[in-house]
What does this fold into?
Amino acid sequence: MATVILQPAFARRYTDGVITLEVDAADYQTLIDTLDERYPGFAEGVAIRTAVAIDGQIYQDPLLEPIGPTSEVFFLPLLEGG
Amino acid sequence: MGNEGKQQFKWVGTRPVRPDGVDKVTGQANYGADFTLPGMLAGRVLRSPHAHARIKSIDASRALALPGVRAVITAADFPELPSEVVAGGESPVNYRHISENVIARHKALYEGQSVAAVAAISASIAEAALALITVDYEVLPHVIDVRAAMRPDAPILHEDMITSGVEPKPTKASNIAARTEFNMGDVEQGFKDSDVVIEREYTTQPVHQGYIEPHAAIASMAADGMTTIWCSSQGQFMIREFCAKLLHLEDAQLRVIPAEIGGGFGGKTTVYLEPLAVALSRKTGKPVKLVMSRDEVFRASGPTSGAHMTVKIGAKRDGTLVAGSLELAYQAGAFPGSPAVPGCMTAFAPYDMANAKAVGYDVVSNRAKCAAYRAPGAPISSFAVESALDELAIELGMDPLALRLKNAAKEGTRALYGPKFPIIGFVETLEAAKAHPHYSAPLKANQGRGVASGFWFNIGGQSTAAIHINEDGTAEVVTGSPDIGGSRASMAMMAAEVLGIDLAKVKPLVGDTASIGYTFLTGGSRVTFATGKAVCEAANDIVEQLRARAAKLWKCGIEDVIWKDGVAYPAQGQTDARTQLSLAEIAASAARTGGPITGKAALNVGGAGAAFGTHICDVEVDPETGRTSVVRYTVVQDVGRAIHPSYVEGQMQGGAVQGIGWALNEEYVYSEQGQMQNAGFLDYRMPVASDLPMIDTVIVEVPNPTHPFGVRGVGEVPIVPPLAAVANAVARASGVRVNDLPISPPRLLSALQKAKA
It folds into this structure.
């Protein structure tokens, strides 16, 4: 089961304050679908250009990035730069 | 260093002559303002003289009656867009805010905001017409300072702006656009467990990116609505997207041709003049050119945020960092969107700290909307944290680099913003700094040495690259990334390396929006990493095609052909294959083997390598005048792999110099009416070559495993540490610590006199 860790403010709004979630998913989109079923509105919450870190690697527009059984997943604000 | 036994390359890591050099030194390069079209009209922009005013009416009739005036536009010529945050550009955007920053609709929110624009047959007529436009303003109270803007009784800029990120949702409008919080561990317990706690307040001022080339744009809309824009920006596709959204056009109606760019540093990642030029061209049926003066650049574009910050850091007596908290209030300018979030995410990132918290506020006030500036948000918050760490080191009696080394983030360290770091090279930068002769060199009277470190994520994103093999075996490498830091050289070098051919045979080009696939803008230190990866894939595509062409000529399978040093050879044991074939020979026979040879790659690249830097700064303080001179400066940075080390060193030096200016001199001076008083390089003091010593550089290479050559991105990290490196040096030289930037001579003199009294 992959571990999804949320920032508290996001968790308050979308997961009833639950910060750490265990999810069985082989890729990013399946993970989002699974969490959206569990917490309706979750997918919308991460939809507006949220970056994701999977095992420390940051992806800006993820879809089918693989997720392993021991993966750690974080949602991040979209990163910009100068 | 950091890459013992590194792979040797033919081109990567060498220092060839830059491909854009001749055009630039001979004046042949075409910048945004250099284009001229037949029948072109001159545009000028009328700007608000007030920091905050309701626009009751605009009467352009007298201007339109002036002979030679062809059109006047106001916000009424643009669609009124809904105020909503949607995906777009570099981060979620509110197109209504972008539109109103381009041309004010109901209110002018800062002095210098555009309220109308004119097109005329000459610049002097357009200028005269501006004076004939009557704007009826109701002047409103204004607020400039970030803390003043946060007060409940402050003048409100946006009556519909409710602070996001606060539960329960506030019911009253405020200038605080958003609150963001990051947490890790138990900060309060961490402070209780600490032996030493340092708590300080800091402020920084907004500073401009200071690019030499002012904004410039030409637009020409044909009768069928097809529009061409020539402009210098950090992203031709960004210009297309924003113009399309602001003017309700389709992407395919717009072709944006990137001009050579005279500096951007993040400040050219949005639109200012381009939508105005398109609207004027639409109204007149003629090409229209708009160019900002330096005065307009200062009043109406950039800068980055100023900030007020509080920092608290707790440590054990042995120097182990236990807890850190940070509260940041960043000025966004007139519309939301300061880099408070990356400010929160980056400041503690270099350190392995179990308990940390960062809270950021994005605050609007009556000054120009902030724009990105190298590592947006990071230099500001790092100034606070790295200054506090210096005081902690003094309190603990520790060497400041040893304190950082003891707590340095490594592979597997969890950052405050969540993930664990993959392979990074922060420790290597600290060790290289400690071993550098600069760090142990003796200091003279009134001199002091400061150190500071910094972090930036670097990003990937979408990039397209195409490589065309010409009939004579030379190659064109086309990408969609404007070259603001030497990317054409690095693209050509990586292509030459993969193809195995002479670099002189490879010509790098930046394509326009109609000639290359979508490419995200040049920013986030992404181009050599992400577009470079696309170039490598396109070159690999070419190599496969070349092997296939050779196989056809030799009547063998592609598996029987190997590609080495730009030549096709028979694979081992393939004695029936007759000879070898160079790229030029295969190119010459392209017509017979299947037609033109073109390789391409279109990627959305993840896995950007985070980068760290450590700076050493020596200053000398004149106790009589308060003037600070930087006498020696060394930048140490993990770059992953330096494709063209001279460009990499240039990035490191440039970032350091901009950071030194931020620390010592640069600030906006406002009148009581909220009008900028120093809108020019004479009064807005950026460092010039004669102010500084040669900036020494040490390239550390801990390759990023997600890039074919190990690139991490280099352009942003070097502006992160200088603010604190300079401030720490000043404190150690003078015995007085100034926590408010800039540490200008009057400010330092006052602090010295206060300390003496």
